[in-house]
Design brief:
18 strands, nine-stranded mixed sheet, 12 helices, alpha/beta, elongated
Length: about 375
């Protein structure tokens, strides 16, 4: 184990996290340039379409007029090999005479996928790969799934009472969790490309589904509404964020006026085929992926949560459990038809609320 390599890679992770909510569907990447044991420059990928972390670190060194020939560059993801919105980073690294490149994880994108590592070695540059690889994979778990499967990374979030209810018997679910937990949820929204609910949540709660209590960007709002039943006056149809509504194909013939009205407001109404009276979760996720949405936070009610689990589509499960009790009401799940187990990733308290994140694996 090289302690210096681990230390600089951990700093790459810290830099990379500054891009949360800004770079998707690109990965989170940080870069550090080290020479003679000292850091001389740093950079990170700041927003989608802008310069990559390695280039930003190189520019940092050049602004300082520091000679980087013979230096080591640390980067948590394999440098890009292809022309996209920016030129290949690997070419810049070769051209400037770095002696060593230290990487946490390969880039799973088929356009890269080890090609940059081969090119670096072919040009006489030493490459060390796999430094803190588990942490590197966790950092970019959303990106990795999106690239490997062409399906967004899906997280489900619920707030429940200590006796396991997510709403009162009449469907009211306002303010189960405390203000601190709700602030964390707003931060989570900033970290996902889209936030998704079912029609019942919109009808009962009329949520905005935006980021308000923290600094960040609003995710795309997604509603599954097979019967096209949400009122046109719903807050999700304001211009705070883009909104997509998935409806049954049969609706297109009968709701032309409503569709035309919402189209004028910039709302995307997407028809989908039905099966047993339900829209297919996987069809919806593939459509979102085709729109460049790499991650989805599901905040729906019992029906929507259950359908996502039954579709085996959930990657992580976030539970905020309050101390309060309802005694009766609506439980988290309806009729589950799949078996899964939860591996706890983290657990903490936000005031009187207990929060836990679980990684989901299906049996």
């Amino acid at each position: 184990m090289n302690r210096a390599d681990n230390r600089w890679m951990k700093y790459c992770f810290t830099l990379a996290e500054k891009g949360v909510g800004k770079v998707s569907p690109n990965p989170l990447v940080g870069a550090v340039i080290v020479k003679n044991g000292k850091m001389i420059a740093e950079g990170y990928h700041q927003r989608y379409g802008s310069s990559h972390a390695e280039v930003n670190a190189i520019r940092d060194a050049q602004r300082k007029k520091i000679d980087i020939k013979g230096a080591t560059i640390y980067v948590n993801l394999e440098p890009c090999f292809h022309f996209g919105k920016t030129p290949p980073c690997v070419d810049e690294i070769v051209k400037l005479g770095f002696s060593r490149v230290v990487i946490s994880t390969d880039d799973p994108n088929p356009l890269v996928a080890g090609k940059s590592i081969k090119k670096l070695r072919a040009n006489g540059i030493k490459v060390k790969n796999g430094v803190l690889a588990k942490d590197g994979k966790n950092l970019n778990e959303k990106f990795f799934k999106y690239i490997r499967t062409s399906v967004p990374f899906v997280s489900v979030k619920v707030a429940s009472t200590s006796d396991g209810f997510i709403a009162r018997p009449d469907g009211d679910s306002h303010w189960i969790s405390n203000a601190q937990s709700r602030m964390i949820v707003h931060q989570m929204r900033n970290e996902y490309d889209a936030v998704l609910v079912g029609a019942t949540t919109v009808i009962n709660d009329d949520p905005l589904l935006t980021v308000r209590t923290v600094e960040g960007r609003n995710p795309v709002r997604v509603v599954i509404d097979g019967n096209f039943s949400v009122p046109m006056t719903s807050k999700i149809f304001n211009d705070d964020a883009n909104t997509i509504v998935y409806v049954a194909k049969r609706i297109i013939r009968t709701e032309r006026k409503k569709i035309a009205f919402l189209h004028k407001k910039g709302i995307d109404i997407i028809p989908m085929p039905e099966h047993s009276g339900k829209l297919n979760i996987h069809h919806i996720l593939r459509d979102l992926s085709a729109r460049g949405i790499a991650s989805v936070l599901v905040e729906g009610g019992q029906k929507t949560l259950t359908e996502f689990f039954n579709a085996r589509a959930v990657d992580t499960f976030h539970v905020f459990k309050a101390k309060k009790k309802y005694g009766s009401g609506i439980k988290i799940f309806g009729d589950l038809s799949v078996s899964f187990y939860k591996r706890r990733v983290q657990s903490k308290h936000f005031g009187t609320d207990h929060y836990a994140e679980y990684s989901i694996r299906y049996v």
